[in-house]
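Quick one - inputs below.
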Amino acid sequence: MTIQQTQDEIIADFELFGDWMDKYEYIIQLGKELPMIEEQYKTDDNLIRGCQSRVWLHTEFKDGKLLFTADSDAVITKGLISLVIKVLNGQTPKAIIESDLYFIDAIGLSSHLSPTRSNGLLSMVKQIKLYALAYQKKSVES
Amino acid sequence: MTNTNDILESHMIDVEAVRKDFPILSTHVYGYPLVYLDNAATTQKPESVLHAMDDYYHTINSNVHRGVHHLSQQATEAYEGARQKIADFINARHNHEIIYTRGTTESINLVASCFGRKFLKPGDSILISAVEHHSNIVPWQMICEEKGASLKVIPVDDEGELILDNLDKLLDDVKLVSFNYVSNSLGGVNPVQAIITAAHKRGIPVLLDAAQAVQHLEVDVQSLDVDFLAFSSHKLYGPTGIGVLYGKEEWLNQLPPYQGGGEMIKTVTFEKTTYNDLPYKFEAGTPDMAGAVGLAAAIDYVLGLGIRNIQQVEHSLMSYALGTLTEINGFRLIGKAVAERRAGVISFLVGDIHPFDLGEILDKQGIAVRTGHHCAQPVMDRYCIPGTVRASLAIYNNSQDIDRLAAGIRKASALLS
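Output:
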C-alpha cells in the first residue's frame, strides 16, 4: 500500500466513530495492544525527548525500505505513534521525505502536531524524516 | 460531606457573584462549560481589570515621567499611583522599594544578576530549596557559573516538607538565600519565617519567590522582614507582562543597575553616566503603563474581596477537593496531604496513568489542568515521577468545578486503565 492509501484507510476507519470518546478509546486500544519496540532498543540513543511524554524510535533499513518500531510511556501518544508507523513503515526514504501526513488533521488530531503540545509526536515525525534523509543520502552515495 | 456553599457564604464572599466578574468563565470548551483549574499557571481577569486597561488606552495613554503635557501627567499619576498601591498591598515601607519588572522570573534574574555581580566571589554559595521553579534555579546557576560560586539546596522529604535540620550548616559560605513561599509544583506553604530568621542570624539576605503566595494569603514584607520579594501580576488576576520586585531600600541602593537605557539615568555624557535614584535606577526604557494600571485594578479587586476572606474560602474548597479526590481509586497526592499547609495547588497522579494521558482526557471534557513537570524538573526527579497532573484553585472556583474534575478523572481512569 502507498502512504496515501494507508492514510485514506485510517481516515475512513475514523469516520465510523460517533464521538471523541470512541475515537480515544480506539487510539488508546492501539497504544495498549501494539508491542512495538524490543526492550533492547529502548535506549537513551533512541529516545526522542518530547516535553511531556517520552518516545523511543528504532529504525532499520532493509532492501531500500525503512522499518520503524517505537514506544512511549504515554498511551495516547503510543496510539498515535502506531498510526504514524502504520502509514510510513516499509516505505522508501524518498516516499517518506515527500510524504504529507494529512490523515492526522483529517481525523481531528492536528493539535497533536502543534509545537505547543510537545507530546513527542511532532519530534518523532521530524526524526523519521531525518532518518529518511540520511538513508537516502547514503544510498545515493553508495 | 459538608455542603461547601454554606461554608462559602459564611465567609462573606459570594463565589457565584465573583464568577460573574470573570467573563471568560462562561466559555464552553468542546461543548462543555469550562472548568478552569490551571490558576497556578495564570489566573483569569475580572471585568474591572479589563476595563481599567481599556480605559487607560482610551483616555490617558501617554509616556510617563517625561512629558510636560496634561496626558503625560495623568498617565504618570496612574502609573505611580499603582506603585503606591502595590507598596501598600505588601506593606512596603516606601513606594520606591517597588520595582516594576516583567514578572517573577525577571525579578529573580534582576537580583541574581545585580547582587551576583556586586557580591559573589569564587567559593561563595547561593542557597535555594529542592522545591523551586526553574525560574529560581537557572538564574542562580548562571551567575554562579560566571562567578565561580556554587548552588546549594535545602532538601525536601517524602511529604514535600523542607528539611531544616542542617540549615545552619548549609548556610556556611552562603551569600543569599532564595526560595519560594508556596511551591508551584506541590502547593506546600514553606516555613518562611524559620528560614528567614536563620539566614538573618548570619547576616544573609533572603529573596522570597511569592508568585504562588500573594493571591492566596496575606504577605507583609515588614513582618516577614524579607530582603527581596518577587511576584507576577498575571497570577494575581492582573494582566500578563508585568511583575514586581520588592527590595529593602538599603539593599536596592547597594546594587548596580540591571539594564541601561532611558529613565534609569540622571545624566549622560559620552564619558560618564550617573544613575537615577530608586526605583528608576532599575527601570530602563518605557515601562508597561497599562499593565501597571491593570495590576492596580487587580489589587483593588482582591482587596475588595479581602485577602483573608479569599484565604478562608479557598481553604474550604481545598478541604472539599482533597476529600472528594482522595476517594477516587488509585488517587495519589504528591506532597503534603493536609489542607492546612497547602495553598492553591493539588498535584496528583492516578494509578499508573501517565499525567499527559490524564490531562488530555480531562481537556476533552472541558476541564483545564496542567500536566507535566510544571517547570520544576528536580522536584519530579526527587519523587521519581515523570510529572503530575496539577489542579490549581482561584477564588472563582466552586464545588461544582471539583465535582466535574472528580467525574472527569473517573471517566479518564476507566478509559486509560
